[in-house]
Design brief:
mainly alpha, 328 residues
């Protein structure tokens, strides 16, 4: 709409009229009113739509200051469209395994709480000598029946402790450091954070923001806390006169390829384009790795369910075979 030459206020009004969400429509209408009253577009969004990402606000602000608002919106569209499609793909792929796991857990709980105690009572009344696998299954079932409240309490306490830890500085550092350095999926977490850094930084630079301001916005966008702290340290170092790549080399959490490519972009004077390229690379690596992991989930889930089913069948049928053998 901006490309047609209409005033900004009218553009926002037209977008508001197309919104199906009443709350969003009302907020956009207030944004249009503020723009008509003389406020900047970025300030109007900031005042009336507090949930908008920092990336969006600062890109719009830079677009207004540089006179390239239309190009900034195109850049934002590309950035958020790619992010949304990636998330949608992951959610879509995870839906089936999640449903299978949920159904399997419910079925196992019902068997352990209802079926196994009944079989145990029958075998005990008949005086059948039960094999070790059956005794173990009955013991587990009795534990679930008698101590289910303790299991729920422990799970709730773990959830509360995790939530409290994420609210403290030490806890956030420990959790974020573990995900980047020691977690089984640490490579995935590291590449995801690096891709987010490269894509957001490229968007900010394309909007015309100075490097320190761009780094400040990037530090507020990245989800991993220690990676975000590292970006803030890079910003402080850049403000003292150092290059971005030199500053990044001192942060252990930044992938070496990211640091080297930033250095190449700085030396060649094409940092924005280089960040675009490396961001696309990391996004592709994350997508490939995620696809591989998800493709492995189905056979792993199938094998685990098969093991559980075989265990349950052996525990139930072995005493029956022993009983029939005794009768014969």
């Amino acid at each position: 709409i901006l490309g047609t030459g209409l005033p900004v206020m009218r553009c926002v009004e037209m977008v508001a009229s197309q919104s199906r969400n009443k709350r969003t429509r009302r907020m956009l209408e207030k944004v249009a009113e503020d723009i008509g009253a003389g406020y900047s577009m970025a300030q109007s969004f900031e005042n009336n739509m507090p949930g908008l990402p920092k990336t969006f606000i600062e890109t719009v602000r830079a677009g207004e200051q540089s006179g390239a608002l239309e190009e900034c919106f195109k850049r934002l569209h590309k950035y958020y469209d790619k992010t949304a499609k990636t998330k949608a793909k992951v959610i879509s792929t995870l839906t089936y395994p999640a449903m299978v796991i949920a159904v399997a857990v419910i079925v196992v709980i019902i068997i352990m709480v209802k079926a196994i105690p009944a079989f145990g009572d029958v075998f005990a009344e008949m005086g059948t000598e039960m094999p070790a696998v059956t005794k173990g299954l009955i013991a587990v079932s009795n534990f679930f029946v008698g101590w289910w409240w303790l299991i729920l309490l422990v799970l709730a306490l773990l959830g509360i402790l995790y939530t409290l830890a994420k609210r403290t500085e030490k806890g956030r550092v420990a959790i974020s450091s573990f995900s980047l350095k020691h977690a089984p999926l640490r490579r995935l977490h590291s590449m995801s954070a690096a891709g987010q850094f490269a894509n957001t930084m490229a968007t900010m630079l394309a909007a015309g923001l100075p490097v320190p301001k761009a780094l400040d916005v990037v530090s507020q966008v990245i989800g991993n806390y220690v990676f975000s702290v590292g970006v803030r340290e890079v910003k402080q170092s850049v403000e003292r006169g150092r290059t971005i790549s030199e500053s990044m080399e001192e942060i252990e959490y930044f992938p070496k390829m990211l640091t080297e490519m930033v250095g190449v972009g700085e030396r060649s004077g094409s940092l924005e384009q280089t960040l675009d390229v490396i961001g696309a690379y990391f996004d592709n690596e994350v997508e490939v790795l995620t696809s591989r992991l998800l493709s492995l989930m189905e056979p792993v889930i199938t094998i685990l369910l098969a093991v559980v089913v075989v265990f349950l069948l052996l525990a139930v049928y072995l005493p029956m075979f022993s009983m029939y053998g005794g009768i014969a």
